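Bit of a strange request maybe. I'm writing a small parser for structure token strings and I need a real example to test against, not something I typed by hand. Could someone generate the tokens for this chain?
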Amino acid sequence: TDGGTAGGIAGGGVLIFSKSLTVTGGIVSNGNAGDSNTNAGAGGGGSGGSILLVVGTATLGSSLITTTGGAGGDGNSTSDGGTGGVGRIAVHHSSAITGTSNPTFTDVTDPTLVETGGASLLLNMI
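Reply from user aminoacidic:
Good idea to test on real output. This should exercise your parser:
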């Protein structure tokens, strides 16, 4: 008999510190899909990763930051793999922040974050 197949790889961790952050491409830490196997149990999807942004101000765009779970693999009718769980996104900031993420980020306003130097980032990557 054939055994089960591999689950998807989980998303990794991302940590960004910046005085000002503008996201135009994407910051992605999604889980991969599980392997398919119609002769045995299919693999489950990998979980989403973690993203922590520590910024003065941020323009995040619309769902350009994601930590979603991977799809479960296709098996026979009784052994499909399960979907991986979502990851976590947190934004710690001292000033204005706009935009959305998937899943919704944890919004932490921290006035002790003082922008006394450092660079501004414009991220346009996938």
